[in-house]
Amino acid sequence: xxxxxxxxxxxxxNLDLGSQAVxxxxxxxxxxxxxxxxxxxxxxxxxxxxPAVLMDDDTYLEAPSAEELxxxxxxxxxxxxxxxxxxxxx
Length: 90
What we know:
The chain contains three helices and four strands. By secondary structure, the chain is of the alpha+beta class.
């Protein structure tokens, strides 16, 4: 059984706006992050506008592009002590 140190959640309606790419990058670089997809995260008024994720149940992150959102997610993870998988592509 995997031990997860953080959780990243996405709304399925937001996947095409860029959160799917962020999901894929996190899955590759941070295997200790639990990934969850939900029908709704309760942030509809914000998540319909661009890529967004919910970290650890209480930190909503959004950005104008998937690349910028991944940078914010990565910054969040590093600030909270998470290191990328050794050998993971940058």
